[in-house]
Model the fold of this input.
Amino acid sequence: MINTKVVVLGFPIYVIWAVFLEIVFGSGNLTTGTRVPVGMVIAFCLIGFALAGGVLWYIIRRAARNKPDLQRDFYWVLIVALCVSGVFESAGKGLATVLLGGCPWWVLAPIFALSYAVLWAVGMVMLTRRAKSTPTAR
Amino acid sequence: MPTRRFSSTILAGAWPQTDPAACHTLSRTQHRKAVELLGHSDEIRAAATQVTTNQAGATVDAFGGSSHRLAGTVTDHADRYFAMARASREVGHILHGLRTDLEHIDSRAHTQIDQIAQRVTGATAVFAQTRIIQVIAAARGEAAEKSATAATAIADQGANLGITTPPAKAGNPSAVPVSGPDDQIVDPGKTGPRIQAVDNTTTPQPPGVPAPTPGGPAPQQGFLDQYRDSLGQPSAPPAAPPPVPMPSPNPPPPFVPEKPGPPVRSVPMPSFGQCVGDHVKENLGESMVKDGFKSALQKAAMGAAFGAGLTPEAFGAGALPGAVLGFVGGFAQGVVLAPVKEAAKGAWDCINNPIPGAPTP
Done:
């Protein structure tokens, strides 16, 4: 069982927090080296957030019926999910840097949204498989 | 010479000090001299024809034949002056083209330096300095290459005139004597008119001034030697004749060679991989620390949400261990992925700011 309210509430909070940290640390180039059309910016943001929302909705709907054994699996699952989402996030930022010459906020926001969805997707897949393979957890 | 910020560094030793306009003036003067010699040749022939028409005898015939030979020699001199006029005009074109090319190289290098300077930040100052030095070195090498090409073209002009071959009078008695444009026709005497060779390796002295002694000052440098000196290249031996002799009437302003600069050495150009590698080495330490903490704070929030979302029965008690685990894991992740991130940024910089002469990726 997962708390749907926390997952949904954490989605925009995490995106805003992550973008805020990127801007504060200023480690990336926040301006693109090439001119990008406005339509492409809007489409990129909409597609990114739509994908992240779809993944989260599917994960919550599928995983809500299972009750994972958190005491045993929580730490490993979180580490693996963080690594996978982190690699996804870094790959997205690196690709944007190479293609656009920087990572502005409108690129970072969809990437962080998708990274958040990947975290929950990987976590739920691992916990669900673990719960199904353990008779006591059913 | 251009007066931009690094122009003296880029073009030192490569910028030709000789004004191309002086070469064109020289060409016109040589052309006038050739026309004048042709006129003299016609006058000699006309005088000989008149004498042999009005009078007769062996002496008259000998005078006529000798005058016609003398007229042919003067015509040869006129032809040499025409050839020198063409060579001087061509040298002027070469120098003008060289100045234009060097101006273009200098302008392009400064444009690249300005672009690098505009993008520089405090963290990339050292890397930007390295890039600027590389741009200057590449432009300097390109300028030296252009100068060498121009010097070769000018030397070819001299070779076309036959001025690079050693004269017969230098110590080869069996060779056929070759007359020069500056040779003098002296009093015929009993053997008829003859040509006396002029020593071009010594500076002509005005009347009343004693001639220089053999152990005195060094002979005047030729045009090509002066130009080679201005390029920082070794000059020809002083015994070689001057490639483009100056005519006596209205000589162009003397050539003032620039102080020879240091010899131009070719700087090895870094490859694309070296460019990216330099960028990574320059920024890796700072990036690992910054990305580590940034990623730790981001993943702490993510871990807290993950822990709280998975513990609804405990009122979100998993948020704290999730945040701690996310902080530690995020820091490690930021440190590990920092080299990849810097490599991507370095690739973007090296692709968009290529070093002139460096191999493209």
The interface with chain B takes residues 1-3, 6-7, 10, 13-14, 17-18, 21-22, 25, 27, 29, 33, 68, 70, 74-75, 78-79, 81-83, 85-87, 90, 93-95, 97-98, 101, 112, 115-116, 119-120, 123, 127 of chain A (CB under 8 Å). Chain A has a mean pLDDT of 81. The longest helix of chain A spans residues 70-100.
